[in-house]
Structure formats: C-alpha cells, structure tokens
Amino acid sequence: MKLCLPKGTKDILPDQIHLWQKAERVFAEVCEQYGFSEIRIPTFEHTDVFERGVGNATDVVRKEMYTFEDKGGRSITLRPEGTAGVVRSFIENGMGSLPSPVKLFYNITAFRYEKMQKGRYREFHQFGVEAFGSSGPEIDAEIISLLCTFFERVGIAQTRLCINSIGCPACRPTYHVALKDYFADKVSDMCEDCKARYDINPQRMIDCKEERCKPFVANAPRQIEYLCSDCRTHLSGLEKCLSSLDIKYKIDPSIVRGLDYYTRTVFEFVSDHVGTQGTICGGGRYDRLVETMGGPSVPGIGFAMGVERFLMEAASQGVSLAERVPVNLCLVHMSESAYDQVFRLAHRLRRAGIACEVDLMGRSFRAQMKYANKLGIPYMMVIGDDEIASGMAKIKRMIDGIEVEVRLDDLPEQASIFMNESTKEN
Ligand SMILES: [Zn+2]
Ligand SMILES: [Zn+2]
Q1: Quick one: which of 36, 258, 23 has its CA closest to 156?
Q2: Ligand nearest to the CA of 175
Q3: Which of 42, 166, 245, 419 has its CA 20 to 30 A from that of 228?
Q4: pLDDT over 90 for what percent of the chain?
C-alpha cells in the first residue's frame, strides 16, 4: 500500500518554507518590540484544560477535538487552540505574581477535526498573543496596533478592523433573556445545534452558519444594545485609543467569536480576498477565564491568527515574502586528485559562515557545472591540479562572468569580500 498524508494535513516543502520562516520571524520581531515574550506549551494537554478553558458548549469541544486515552488511561487532547494551554501554564507557573501585565506570544500547531474546505486544515498553525493583568482598554488597543504593525511590516494592506463588545457577566443575563424571548417562537424551526444552544448559551446562536438559521439570526437583538455602563465605558475607551493611534475600525455588532470565554472587547481583521468568511485574525478579552480555570482573578486578552489563511492572504495580495537567496558558492573540482582539497575547502568556508556547495555525487566536471547552473548558484570556483599547485584560484560571478583571483590560503576572507561587494553592486 502506498503511504500518504492523513486528510487535513500537509507538508511544507522546501520551496515554500521561506514564506513561513519570514512570517514567523517578522511576527516574533514585532511581538518583542511590543514587549511580548515567547512561550512554548505542549502539543497535548489533559482534556479538562480545553473543556474548562474553551468551554463545553463550543463546537470546538463538542465536535472537533482529537481526544484519546493514553496508555496510562488518561484523557488527552491535542490542543485545538492556544489560549487554554497558555492560561493553564500561567496558573501552574504562578505567573500571576510577576509584574503586570504579563505579555506572551506563541507560534503553534493546533488540531481540529473540521470539515475540509479551502484553506482549512485539521493540523494548522497559529500565531497568537495573550496578555494578563490589565483590564483597561489601552492593552486592547496595544494588541490591535501590534497586529497593524505586523500587517504593515509584511506588506499586507486592505484589512478591515471590526470591533464589538459582547458584554460582561453583569449585563449578559439581561441579554440572554432578550435572546430567549426573541428565539422562543423560532427555535423549533432552527438547526439541532441551535436547539441545544438555546438552553446552554443562546448567544452562540448568533454566529450559526446554517442557512436555515440565518434569517432568524439576522434580526436578533445584539449584545451591544444591552451593555452595562462599565462595558459601555470600556468600549468607548477602546475607540478613543484606536482613534488616537489613527487606526481605522468599524463597530460590527455581529461579531461574537466562536469561544465561550470572551468578555467585552472582541475584534477581527477581515479581508475580502480570503476563503469563506475572510477573517484573517480574531481575538478578544477574557476577563473571567483565568479564574474559571482555577487561577487568580486576573483579566486577559489575546488573539490568534491562522498562519495558513494569513499566507493565502499574502499571496492573494501579491505580497512577496521571499527572502534573498544567501550568497552561495559552488566549488567545482576538475580532477579526482583535486577533490580531497576541494572537500576540505568547503568545510573551511562553511565554518567561516560562507554557504557553499561541493559535489557529493561523483559527478564529472561538466555534470557539476550543469548542476550548479540548475540550482542557480551565483558564484563558482573551479579547482584543478594547477590551482592546487599554485595555491591560487578564480571565483566567478555567474551572472556576468566577472572574476577575481584569490589565494586559497586566504579563501574565506577573500571570497566573502568579493561576494559581498559584488552582491551590493547588484
Ligand atoms: Zn457589562
Ligand atoms: Zn443554527
């Protein structure tokens, strides 16, 4: 039987990896400039972490998790997102006693058993941040501005920021009553999920994707009309911060986010280019999550961005994430007797930090030249018995044939001087 990938997974091949590396590098760089530190959490956790941290009523927990019993009889789940694991770590490592706010970022793979569609994978990648300890709207604005800076630095334009407030435990019950009133005579015509949500958390009915539910949802009351005065103050505080940073936004009362733990601020960056809904990135505030998971009462806010979707967006906007190919030198040997020397030269060059290639296939002189050409290696040095006897050889720039003669003994230094200077000219 032929071996193949499981459905919903993919290889990231060498011809694509530079896109990922560039995105990862810029994301880490921007996060650090905003004072966030990287955290790495395990790929799997006890299932409770997600049941409590993501919420039992969510589709993620009810339908999409990769849960299994390990050989010790424990219920283990591959992380379907990053926040719950980071919060577990925040609590377990006593980070609540660190100076506030505690600002963390991550770059993870996550796993959800989802329907296959364009740009969706069952193993996918996320960039995210979580910030703990600050309840004011300033940190919400800081996180949003971090994303703006990231998009700007990678060259992505045309993203729209939509914000909303989904209230707090003080104002939510009134809203739930309003929702239940509204849906009371409609729920019997809605999907099975909505019927379940009606009792567990009617707010989740608002982002139902079923066609038969959409007409009912369209006219449902919105949380933003039911905010308490603290929530209203928080939202207007965020608006003020965004305006002072010249960040354009729109209030979109339909954003509720797919996870139960959000309070107050929720936001999305939306594009018209991508996939099904065009959401590149979403986040929000979760002031009760740390406490819900057994930690101190510490507010938090974060976002997650699907890297696959982000890269699709970059491609659709024609953004090049390609990096300059490292200056690369091919050492071509002309004879069997020169090979040993050439092999050692390559070792010396690499130790000195110069990327170079040397024949490993027993190729003939002509075949080596052809190989170098095929790979597009920009510099070549041919070494035969004469070069070894005289201790001098020529480095040639392939694009225009310009050559310089160097002493083999001084090779790493002289080669790098020539290659750096002639690369700059280009
Ligand atoms: Zn409220
Ligand atoms: Zn529904």
Answers
A1: 23
A2: 1
A3: 245
A4: 72
For residue 276, the model assigns a pLDDT of 45
Of 376, 372, 373, residue with least CA distance to 358: 372
- Which ligand places an atom closest to the C-alpha of 174? 1
C-alpha span between 262 and 284 (Å, rounded)? 6
CA 403 – ligand 1 centroid, Å: 72
State the pLDDT at residue 274.
54
Question: Which residues keep their CB under 5 angstroms from ion ligand 2?
Answer: 190-191, 194, 208, 210, 213
Q: Do 137 and 245 reside in the same domain of the chain?
A: yes
Q: Do residues 45 and 103 share a domain?
A: yes
Domain assignment present for residue 411? The answer is yes
DSSP letters for 231-280: HHHHHHHHHHHHHHTT---EE-TT---SSTT-EEEEEEEE-SSSSSS-EE
Note the ligand closest to the C-alpha atom of 287.
1
Containing structural domain, residue 72: 14-171+227-316
Proximal ligand: closest to the CA of 189: 2
Report the C-alpha gap between 42 and 421 in whole angstroms: 45
Ligand 1 centroid to Cα of residue 327, in Å, is 58
Q: What is the dihedral of CA 418, 419, 423, 426, to 10 degrees?
A: 60
Q: 94: CA distance to ligand 1 center in Å?
A: 28
Which ligand does the CA of 226 lie closest to?
1
Rounded to the nearest angstrom, the distance between the alpha carbon of 329 and the centre of ligand 1 is 64
Q: How far is the CA of 335 from the centre of ligand 1 (A)?
A: 80
Q: pLDDT for 208-235, tens place per residue? A: 888 999 899 988 999 899 999 999 999 9
| Residues 356 and 308 placed together within one structural domain of the fold | no
Does the CA dihedral 30-33-35-38 come out positive or negative?
positive
Residue 203 lies inside a defined structural domain of this protein? no
Same-domain status, 306 and 411: no
How many domains is the chain partitioned into structurally? 2
Claim to verify: residue 264 and residue 293 sit in the same structural domain: yes
Give the mean model confidence (pLDDT) for residues 362-384.
93
Q: Is residue 371 part of a domain?
A: yes
- Please state the pTM of the whole predicted model: 0.87
